[in-house]
Known about the structure:
By secondary structure, the protein is α/β, with parallel strands linked by helices.
Amino acid sequence: MDRQPEVIAIGEILWDVIGTERHLGGAPFNFAVHCRHLGARSAIVSRVGQDELGDEIVARARDLGVDGSLIQRDAAHPTGQVQVTLRAGGQPTFDIRSPAAYDHLAATPEAKSRVAAAGAIYFGTLAQRHSTARQAITALLEAASHHSGHRPLIVCDLNLRPPHYADRVIVDALARCDLLKLNDDELGILQRVLGWEGSDQDAFLRHLIETYDLALVCVTLGARGCILRTPQERVASPSYACSVVDTVGAGDGFAAALVTSYLAGRPLEAVAERANLMGAYIATQRGATPPVTAEALTTFAARTKRAAQVTHRSQR
């Protein structure tokens, strides 16, 4: 396991408050935890308060097997919190508190060195809502992109949380990543931001790939599965039917399976199927980072029906 490339997430760690329960979360942290569940080495570059909630995060990261040595402590700003309200079907809405320590993330020399040597780097948009963290994330991605002899796979999971993003941040993220993940709602927002007027979804995905030199675009469709698009191939993969407990963290588990499977060089159909399986399984559990084992995924897959056969189409 330790010979595998390290996956490093950059961005927010926070507490999701669901009713009377408190769950450790934040998309980058959830992603790092699930990468570890799937057998990868993982670390996170983030910032938490010099408070009890921050102390607990550092301890929990260690217990979950995520390298927390790049988690910074902030004496002036509190650890982040989000009030999560679950609607019908387990769909969440978020009240993201501000200020938060992760808004003041710094690009330390150690963090720059680690991301430059990583196998993959994951980032999103929420942690860029403040100019300080946005500049730090830009510096870290540039350190990885300009490293001689090795370039990590740079993954952007948009995770747009209104009103905590700006159009210029989205466009900049597209220019910095190799692999882009977004959901169908975010796809519509992205079309607006880029002034796309056509109705052909696949034409837009090809446009993204060609314009921003992307290796892969993934569009998640919730209960309908996902679409993966590379310069050569399109795969539409159906979801696994499941009884949803809550969907908090399901997209992050999906992303972890997507990235680790892609890094392993699996065929695109297998990448999509593994990601859908992981996302569906997380949705049947409470909280964003429930325990996940290979045995649990295998059992879940065996007991759960998929909507239809995978279809794919080559694009020359």
